[in-house]
Amino acid sequence: MEDMENWLAKANVLIEALPYIQRFHGKTIVVKYGGSAMVDHDLKKNVIRDVALLKLVGFRPIIVHGGGKEITKWMKKVDIESEFYKGLRITDKPSMEIVEMVLNKINKGLVSMMEKVGVRAVGISGKDGSVLKVDKKLVGDKDIGYVGEIKEVNTELLNTLLDNDFVPVICPIGSDDGFYSYNINADDAACAIAAAVGAAKLAFLTDVEGVYADPLDKSTLISELSVKEAEELLGSGNIGGGMLPKIHNCVDAIKSGVSRVHILDGRIEHCLLLEFFTNRGIGTAIIGDEEERYYEKNV
Amino acid sequence: MEDMENWLAKANVLIEALPYIQRFHGKTIVVKYGGSAMVDHDLKKNVIRDVALLKLVGFRPIIVHGGGKEITKWMKKVDIESEFYKGLRITDKPSMEIVEMVLNKINKGLVSMMEKVGVRAVGISGKDGSVLKVDKKLVGDKDIGYVGEIKEVNTELLNTLLDNDFVPVICPIGSDDGFYSYNINADDAACAIAAAVGAAKLAFLTDVEGVYADPLDKSTLISELSVKEAEELLGSGNIGGGMLPKIHNCVDAIKSGVSRVHILDGRIEHCLLLEFFTNRGIGTAIIGDEEERYYEKNV
Amino acid sequence: MEDMENWLAKANVLIEALPYIQRFHGKTIVVKYGGSAMVDHDLKKNVIRDVALLKLVGFRPIIVHGGGKEITKWMKKVDIESEFYKGLRITDKPSMEIVEMVLNKINKGLVSMMEKVGVRAVGISGKDGSVLKVDKKLVGDKDIGYVGEIKEVNTELLNTLLDNDFVPVICPIGSDDGFYSYNINADDAACAIAAAVGAAKLAFLTDVEGVYADPLDKSTLISELSVKEAEELLGSGNIGGGMLPKIHNCVDAIKSGVSRVHILDGRIEHCLLLEFFTNRGIGTAIIGDEEERYYEKNV
Amino acid sequence: MEDMENWLAKANVLIEALPYIQRFHGKTIVVKYGGSAMVDHDLKKNVIRDVALLKLVGFRPIIVHGGGKEITKWMKKVDIESEFYKGLRITDKPSMEIVEMVLNKINKGLVSMMEKVGVRAVGISGKDGSVLKVDKKLVGDKDIGYVGEIKEVNTELLNTLLDNDFVPVICPIGSDDGFYSYNINADDAACAIAAAVGAAKLAFLTDVEGVYADPLDKSTLISELSVKEAEELLGSGNIGGGMLPKIHNCVDAIKSGVSRVHILDGRIEHCLLLEFFTNRGIGTAIIGDEEERYYEKNV
Amino acid sequence: MEDMENWLAKANVLIEALPYIQRFHGKTIVVKYGGSAMVDHDLKKNVIRDVALLKLVGFRPIIVHGGGKEITKWMKKVDIESEFYKGLRITDKPSMEIVEMVLNKINKGLVSMMEKVGVRAVGISGKDGSVLKVDKKLVGDKDIGYVGEIKEVNTELLNTLLDNDFVPVICPIGSDDGFYSYNINADDAACAIAAAVGAAKLAFLTDVEGVYADPLDKSTLISELSVKEAEELLGSGNIGGGMLPKIHNCVDAIKSGVSRVHILDGRIEHCLLLEFFTNRGIGTAIIGDEEERYYEKNV
Amino acid sequence: MEDMENWLAKANVLIEALPYIQRFHGKTIVVKYGGSAMVDHDLKKNVIRDVALLKLVGFRPIIVHGGGKEITKWMKKVDIESEFYKGLRITDKPSMEIVEMVLNKINKGLVSMMEKVGVRAVGISGKDGSVLKVDKKLVGDKDIGYVGEIKEVNTELLNTLLDNDFVPVICPIGSDDGFYSYNINADDAACAIAAAVGAAKLAFLTDVEGVYADPLDKSTLISELSVKEAEELLGSGNIGGGMLPKIHNCVDAIKSGVSRVHILDGRIEHCLLLEFFTNRGIGTAIIGDEEERYYEKNV
Asked: To the nearest whole angstrom, how far is the Cα of A274 from the nearest Cα of chain B?
C-alpha cells in the first residue's frame, strides 16, 4: 500500500505539470547551455534529458552552447597562448581554427547525447544556412581578430529543422560578408536567435543562483524582475561583473519580443524542468513590464 | 534543502515518463470509460485530467463511454421499467429514447470537463458522420428491440477530429440502414473503434483489479497475457461472468491490429497515468503473441 | 409528346437555378430551424432534403435549431413545472438537465435524417470545442438560472467540420467560464454563429409569413427591408411581440457582416429552395443599406 | 395559390435531382459534343448551360468536340477540295492547316460561351501538354495523310485544369513523335480521354434517337445495353453505318473503365440534364455487364 | 590537349551563367515574341530552345506572340482586303474570324515546338479563363471594329499553369463584357500580362538593334535607359514611328512593377540567352530610376 | 563581329547543356569529394561552383567528403602518432577526437564556400539525425578502434534538407548503438548514402584518370563499364590497390539502385560540369547492365 501511495504521488507530479505543458505547447524556447552544467557529466545528462522532455511534450527547443574551458584546454594542446583584451579573447586565424574545431566537437557531442535519448537533433554553426551573419567587433582601436557581432539572423534553416521535428543545437560561430568565420559570444547568440524566432522563453544555464538585490547578501535573490526594474537595477551600480552583460542581454531579448527570460542555476539538477513544469521559482526571471507575475519575491 | 530534494524527486518522475511518452507519441489510443470511475466525482476529475495529459504529450486519445446506472435512474424517473434478457436491456422505442438522452447528457458532460482543463473535445454518438453502423442484434428468437451489433466503423469523422486536435468523446449509439437508433454495448464499441482507427492501445476502466488465474484467489492476478494464453484461460472455465466477454473483446481487438489491450482498475486514482507512464503493471494486459513483454507476473 | 414538354419544363427549372447556385457557391449559410417546420413530419423531411441540396450544389450550410415544445413536453414527463419570467424560461439545475437532454435528442435526430439522405452531418452543442461561450443572462434583479448570453463564438470546430464536408447541426447550449451549461435563445445563437463564420446568408424558418408594415393588414407583407428601413419600422411601434427581437437580431447580424438575413415562412413546403433558387420573394429579407435589391415590394 | 403550386412543382424538380447529384458528385464526366447541337444556336446555348450546371453542382466535366461541317465550309473558302477514303478525310498538309484552324476557332468559341455563363474554361488541343499522342493511321496501303490514331493520353494537363476548377474544352488534334499535327476522329478522342481520366460517364451528343434493335422500326429503341448485349447486337448485322463505330467505341470505353456511356439525341433540348438529373431514359446507355440497370426498356 | 582547353572553355561559359541563373531563379519572365524571329525557321528554333533553357534552369517564362504577316497572307487567301486606320487594322467580323484562326494556328505551332524540346506548354488566348478582358478601342469617331484595349488581366489561369510547370503561350485575343472576341496589340498584351503577374523581366524580340539616341546614327545605340531618361527621350522628338509606342509600353510596364524591360534584336541568334546569361548588353534595357545599372553605354 | 561569334559560341554551349539538364532535373546526385580537388585552392573553388550550378539548374546535390591529409597534419600537431593496420587508421579515443574535429572543420569550411556562391548549405556528420548508424569494423582479431561499418542510413534529415532547398555537406562519421562516434571510409559513406536516397548519379572525384583495362597502359582507359564487365575486370586480377575497393563500391551502389556511378579525375578543372553537361566522357562510368550506353570506349 505504501508502494501505491508512492505511485500516486508520481501521478500527481505529472498532473501538476499539465498547465505548464499547455502554456508552452507548440512554442519555441531557447536554452543557452553553458557553465558547470556543461562540465559535470551527470548535470550534462540531466540537461539533455530535460530538453528531450520539453521536445516530447510539444515544445520546440533550440540549444545554443558555448565552450569556454574546453577551448582553453585545446589552445594549450597546440601551444597557442590565449590572450584577452577587455574580457574578449583575441582571436587570430590559428586561434579561430581551434575555437571552431572545439565548438564543433562539443556541438556534435551534444547532438549524439540528444539522439541517444531518442530525440532527433542537428548540430549546426551559424555558418550553416548563413544562420548568423556578423560584422567584425570593434573595441576602440584595438584589433581583436575574428570576434563577431551579430548583424542578422537568418531563420530559414532553423524553421526548417523545427518544423520537421529536429532540435537545432547551435554553436556560436558566424560568418561575415566575405564568409570568414568569427567567434561570437554565446549569450549574444542565444539572445539574437531567441528574438529572431520569436521564442516564448529564453533560459540561461549559469553558475549563479540568480540576480541579487545586494550581491553581498545571498538572501536578496530576486525571483522576478520587470524590464523597468531590471533597468533600475542596472543603473544602481549594484550589479557586478559577469551579470551585467547578461542582464543587458535579457532586457534586449524582452524588448525584441521574447516573453520571458530566465537566469537559472545550472548547478541544480533538472533546473530546466523545475523552471518549466513547477511553480517553484528558481533563479531570476526578467519579464515584460505588462507580463503577469508568477512568483512572489523570495526575500 | 529538504524542499529541494522534494522538487528533485518531482523532476525525476517527469524524466522517468520520457521513454513512455516516446513510445506512444503520435499514436491513437482508445479509453473505454465506465464503472466507478464514472460515478465518483474525484475519480472522474482524475480520468479527465489523465486523458488531457495524454493528449498534451502527443498521444491521440479517443474516449468511449457507457452510462449504465444513470440510464436506470432516468428510466425510473419517467416510469419505464427496465427489462433484461440474458443480460441485455430490452430496448423498445421509449426506452431507446431515454437511453439516447442519458448517454448524450453524459457525453456532453465529459466534453465540458475536458474543455475545462483546456483540451478541445467533441461529443459525438455513432450516428454523427455515420461512425457506427449496426445490424439489429439477434438473440435466438427473442426480439430485444433497439440493441445493435456493429457491422461497420466509418473513421472519417474520427480522423477529421483527431487530425485537427480534438478529442472525440463517443457514446455507443449507432444507426442501422434505415437510420434508426440502436443501443450498443460500450465495450464492443470501444473495441470496434480501436480496431478501425488502428489504435496502439485500448484501455478498459473497470471495477476489478484485473484477470485472475484463479478468481477465488486474489493473489493470482495476471499482469500480462498473450492472446494464446488468454484463449487457453477462456477455455479453462476459470473465467467468470462479466470478465468473459471482456476478454473475448480484448482478444478480438488484438487480432484486428490493436497492439495492447489493458484491463485497468478504474477505482485506483490516476490508473491511466500509472499504466501509461510508469513501469508498474496495474491490471492485466492482453498482448499479441509476438509482442515484447514488459512485466513479470506478479504471482 | 406531352410527356416531353413536361421534362423540358423540369430541365428549365434546373437551368433557372444556375445563377443562384453560382452566387452562393462555396459560401457559408446558416439556417435557424424552428417552429412548425420542426413538428410536422413532412415539412421536416423537406427541410432536411432542402439543406442536403444546398450542401450538394456547393454551399456550406450550418443548421441551428431550438426545441421549445418538446422541452415543455419532457418537463411534464418528469414533473418539473415550467416557469417563465418576461418570456424567458426560468432554468434551474434540474430544468437545465432536461433542456440539454431534449435538445441533444432533437439534435442527433436531425443528424440521422441528414445522414439518411446521404449528407454527412455532426450534431454538436455550443459546449463542444467551446463553440459558444456565455455569460449568465441578467434580467434586472431576477435570477432566472442557467440562461446564457453569448459572449464569444469559437469557430475552430465549425471550420474544421465545414472544411471536411460535414454539416454542423448545432443546439443552443453554451458554457460559462466555469464550464457550467446554459440555455441560449436559438435565434441569438444562429445570429452570433452567422456573424462569426461570416455567413453570406442567414435564414430563419418561422411560423409567420414575414414582416408586415401593418400587422393587422396581411396585404402589407414587406419583401425587402434595408437596415435603415428596419430600424425605422422598429421605432414605429408597429412591430409586435415575437417579431421584435427577431428583427433586432436580423439587424445585428447584418451589422456584423452577414450579407442577407431572411425571415421565411417555414410552413411553406421547400421554402428554403424557393428562397435560394428562385426569384420569388417569400417572406422578408433584411439587407445592408447598400445591398442590391432583388424584389419589388409586394404591396 | 395557383402560383404557389407552380413554385412547389419547381422545388420538387430540384429535390428530384438530389440523388443524381449525389451519385456523380466529384466525378469526371466527358461530353462528346457534335452534330446538330453544334449548329443550331439555341441547342448550342442549352448544351453550354447544361454543362455549366453539371460543373456547378460538383461534377468535373470535360468537353470534346468535332467540327465536320464547318471544316468543309472553310475548305471551300480556300479552294481545297475535300477528298475522302473509306469515310476518312484525306488530309494533306494544306488541309490539315485548315482543319486545325477551324477546330481551334470552334474550340475558342465554346470557351467564350462557357465563360459567358460564368464557368471558367480553357480551350486546348491534344498538342497542348502533349495530351494526345498519335501514330499515323494506316488504311491498308492508302496514304490518307495527317490522320492520327491515338496511342497515348497524357492526363497531367487535364488534371491540372480539373483540379483548379477549369472546364477543359478539347479539339481532336494530336501530335506524333515528330510533333507533327494530326486530325483525330472526335469520338475516338472522347473515348480515349474518358478512359484515361477514369470518367464515370461519357455522353455522346448525336443526331439519332439512340440504338434500335431494328433500325427500320423506330419503336425498337433500346434504353440500356450491357456490353455483352452490345456485342451481340454488333454481331447481328442489324447495326448500320455511322452507329457501328460509335457502339464499338462505347464498348471499348466501358472495357477501359468508364462506368456508363450514353448515346443521346442532341436534338432534344437539355438532353444532358434530362439524362443526368432525371430518371427518364433518353437515348441508349451502354453499361458494364455487372452494372445496375436504371431503366426498363421503352418498347 | 587542345580538345581539353575547348571543353574547359565550355565549362567556364556555364559557370559564368551562374549569377544570372541565381538572379532570376523562380521569377516570372515574359517574352514578347514577334518580328523576324517568328519567320526565319532557324531563329524560331533558337527562340524556342532559349525559352526551354530559361524554364529548365528555374525561371517561369510566359510567351506572348503576334502574327502580323501571316494574318495578311490568310486575309488574301480568303479574299478579304486588309484595311488600316492610323496603323490599326480595321477588323470587321469576317476579318476577326481570320485573325483569330491565324493567331491560334501560330499559337499551337509554338506549343508543339516547345513540347518537341521537352518543355510542357499550353497555348491559350486571352479568352481562355477570361485572361484578357477588353473594351472596344475608340479612335476618335472612327469605328475600327473588333480591336480591343485591355481593361483587366485575370491571372488565375496563368498562375495555375505556371505553378504546375507549364509554359503559357498566349495569343493576343481578348473578350469584352458580351464575350465577343477582339484583336489586341501584342505588345500591349505582353506589357499588361507582365505587369499583372509581377514579372521580373519583359523582353521584346524586335527587328531593330535597340533604341538610338540619334536614329540616324547607328553608333548611338543606348544600352540602358532609366524611366526618366526614356521619358526625356520620348519628349525629344528624336524617336520615330514604331519605336514610340514600344517605349511608351516599356515605361508603363516599369511603372506597373516590372523590374526590367528589354528591347532585343530578334535577328541575333540566341539573343535571349545572351541577354539573360551574359554580361553583354544587347539591345536596350529600360529600368526603374533606382534600379542598379549593369552596362556602360556602348557609345 | 568576331566578338559576336564568340558570344554565339557561348550561347551554343548553354543550348548543348539543355538535354543534360532535362535528364537530371529534380534528381538527387551524390558527389564524393576528395583527393587533389580538396587541396588545390582553385580546383576547390571550381568544385564548389560546379555543385552550385548543379543545384541551380534543378538537381539535388549531396556532397560527401573525406579529410585524409588534413587529419594526419593535425595528428602531428597534437603529438599523436598515426598507426595503420591493413590500410585502415587505428583510431583510439584521442585519435577519434582529432579525426572528428578535423572533419568538422573541413565540413563547415565547404559549407561557407557554398554559401559564398549563393547556395544554401548545411554541414552535418552522420551523427546528426542519426543519418549514419554503424557497427564496429572487425578486421580479423585486430582491434582497430573507432572505425565503423555502415549498417543503416536514416534519410529523414537528408530529405528534409533537400526538400527545403539546402545542399547537405556530409562528413563520414557515424554512431553505433551506444552513440559513440566512429570514423567511416568516405567512399563507403558516399555509396551507402547514394543508395539510400535513390541517387540518379554518384560521382567520385579522384586523383586518377579512371579505370584502365591494363593499368600499365594509359591508352586503355575505359569510358563505360557495365556491372557485368566491372565484375569480370575485378576477377581478372588486373585492378590494383586503391581502385579495387572503389570499383567494388561502384558495383554495390549500382546494385542498390543508383543509375550511374562515375570515377572522375578531380584534377581536371570543372570535371563535374564536363561529366554532367557535355557528351565528353571523362573518367570511367559504371552502369547497370541494361543501362543505355552514352560513350564509345576510348581505346
From this structure: 7
